[in-house]
Amino acid sequence: MPHTPLSVFTAVLTAALTSALASASLAQTAVPTPRPIVPGEPPVTVTATRNEPTPLEFTPDKLQRLKVPAGFTLKVMATGLGNARMLHVMPDGGIYLSRRAQGDVWYLKDTNRDGQISATERRPVAQNLKLAHGMDVRDGRLFVVGEKTIWVMDIARNGSLSVPRVFADGFPDAGQHPARTLKWGPDGYLYATFGATNNDAPTPNPEEATMLRISPDGKTREIFARGLRHTIGFGWHPVSGVLYGADQGSDWHGDNIPPEELNVIERGKNYGWPFCYGDRQPDPYVNVGNIPGKITKAEYCAGTQGSVLNYTAHAAAIAMNYYTGTQFPAEYRNDAFIAYRGSWNRSEPSGYQIARVVFDAQNKPERIEPFITGFVYQDGDVWKQFGRVAGVATYTDGSLLFTDDQSGVLYRVLYTGGN
Amino acid sequence: MQRSGAGQGRTGKRTRITAALLGSVVLTGAALAGAGMAGSAGVPMPAPATTPLKATAALRDPAGQVLGTATFEQRGAGVRVTVDVTGLAPGQHGLHVHEFGRCTPGVDAATNTVVPFGGAGGHFDPGMSRNHDGPQTDNRLGHGGDLPMLNVAADGRGRATFTTTKLSLTGVTGILNRSLVVHARPDDYKSDPAGMTGARERCGIVTRDNFSVRDYPLPGAQTFPEGVAVDAARGVAYTGSAATGTIYAVNLNSGAVSTFAEGGAQVRTAALGLKVDSQGRVWAAGGASGTVSVLRPDGFPLAILNTPKSPNAYVNDLSPAPDGNVYVTDSTRPVIFRVTPDLKLSAWLDLNATPIRYAPGVNLNGIVATPDGRALLTVQLNTGELWRIDLRTKAVRRVMTGLTRGDGLLLDGHTLYVARNAEQVITKVNLNAEYTGGQIVAQEPLAGLRFPTTLAAVGGDLIVAQGQLDKLQGGTPETPFRLTRFKKF
């Protein structure tokens, strides 16, 4: 039986391979070497402080404690809203408000345009939605994500909603991080985030600690990005189209580790949690033995994506909203506002504020700075707070809305400096 | 397309010898001189080709200087080894074949420190003996890599020539792309893990002579690539992870690797057999998840199809057929599933009503459709049987035996290539015109294979996924994981 001599085809193959060799080696990145045994790490000691500032119910006299930048005015639009979490503003000024603890959605509308949402201007429009949180609207339908389910409801002219239908289901357990969010992307796909059930260990369900990308009919989905412990606020920059997300770092790792992250979220990337934070820094307080493949933490982190900006540890980013209105000065246009709900494991509390992500002339994020502060303060030796901020949205007149989920307050920030 | 080699009983001496005999480079039907030798295994087997397999290892010291050479030549089921190395202390030195083809510093697990040539790993242990022993011990009872000590003369030169049947250059005991290590001290032939032989003083990678392949390295430390499929129009090979379900796209020209589809969503947690259809869609068998995924050319899942829920699902491979349907094997449930062009999955053939008998372990695995559109061919991994299933009548007949550990199939006209995972070879079979009978004509270890799982064609070349699935349940895989491209043989 005839056979091709091995040496002949080998020579041909070798020649063909040599020409392709240069580009192949360029494409090759360092691949971690799995070890026969988990690598050792030196012991590290952490000083962690549980410090939940004493909560105070909102009362109007406390407003004077709040600081706003010059030219801005803060007003209260509504109180007594319960666990007021996320906001979605409709073009006609109607506002959908999710109340996670109550598992419902309310419709608020200032019909008499007095700047107040009175008792007759608010009503529940969807109920029995467990851990209802993130919301977005597309084609006349409101999409709401709760613990393990995304629901869809038809929107009536008066803001009422149809009976909820299940749009997509079977998402992971919520555990410690039940604040799910969703947004329709510019590509016509639905993006939704699902936080980790725990603080700082790998999770058994691969859909945890991820951003998922869901087909327009809700039937199929993919893991768009992973290693995101609890990214609630995310969205596409109005000019650059880049997807940014604000991630909450692990608890109990000390006052400054890990910082809160602002990430550029790209398909197929791993953002490091639980092993790495910030600019791919190995977290010394996470057990190395949990890393898949028995590689070192440094090797693992080298294969992850770093953040683009960091903010004070434990500040707890909730919603993020790009400012696309015209009421604020032009420099605010297309910047982002993030509600930092506030820390509970930092000796000096962080967060308890609305912060501004300043984008530069090239539409790259330059820094994060406080915008509305004063919800937390020291009274003698005791830290106190009267607001846990959560939802942020741009109102139809270009003012900025945000919620306090502790006392159920809807705040409104107006620019009045021009007058 | 098989979850693990462990526990599938590759430890028997008889089986090992059979495998070693199968592992000759090219088998010629005319040369039956070696039949007496083969007869001991009970399988009629042609003799090895006239050109034996040869390999060389350049033995380096930890500084990288070449201070010796070892050569390896296939001799029947065994290998003749010569070693010539200088610069060592006079006396006896332990000599072993280590598992990995890597003479780099690496971790010694006993001290969890990096030691010279630690990258070579532990002793090659094809019999899974987990025991260090002497050079005459059966591989079931001791490491296959345990060789006779090297005697170093007063001038620091050690030379040895011996033949061992514990090792081969092909098959289960094949040592291509593994390493030969000379230790500092004598071998007591009993203490675990290495006979008290001390530091690793020389190391060389066993490299096949006059033979090269092109490797496409893959990212990740736990990648375990199982399936491979080529989209010639896009110039990419897809490969999927048996551990995570992530599917990668490998540029066939540059070797650049990108993530095509992240695994893990909707229980798509494993990707086994892969195929690209005429629309550029990627089909993935989902293993224990019991799913079949259809991914669009941009990687987004078009459909994730569920088989009936079962703790014993093992959707292993699939193949589009000329009739427009895709046929799917399940290695633990005796059924062939079919996906119709409207992406509906159903049970197509109950194998209990056919001559195919499911046994413990991995059963039907690789599947291909014949180009005439009349039949499917599928290999049963645990029995080594190749089956023909008539698409019109559903009649099942056995084509041939002798393909144990047969995993992925590639049909090229009437030539069938079989990736035989734990056997570490690719077997070439000539099939008759009706695909009703076949004969093994050649087997290739290439430059050394690590649990080859599946095959795909790219022009006149083939690509094999070196899955290392035997390490999926434990043990240390060799990175980078890789696809390997080679000329058809």
Tally of helical segments of chain A? 2
Summarize the amount of helix of chain A as a percent range: under 10%
Distance between the termini of chain A: 96 Å
Mind telling me the CATH class of chain A?
A: Mainly Beta
Mean pLDDT of chain B: 90
Give me the count of strands of chain A: 30
User: In CATH terms, what is the fold-level topology of chain A?
Assistant: Neuraminidase
Give the helix proportion of chain B (percent range).
under 10%
Task: Report the uncertain regions of chain B.
Answer: 1-50
Oligomer: heterodimer
Count of domain modules of chain B:
2
> β content of chain B, as a range?
35-45%
* Most extensive chain-chain interface: A-B, 50 and 58 residues
Percentage of β-strand residues of chain A: 25-35%
Instruction: Outline the low-pLDDT stretches of chain A.
Output: 1-28
**For this structure, what is the CATH homologous superfamily of chain A?**
TolB, C-terminal domain
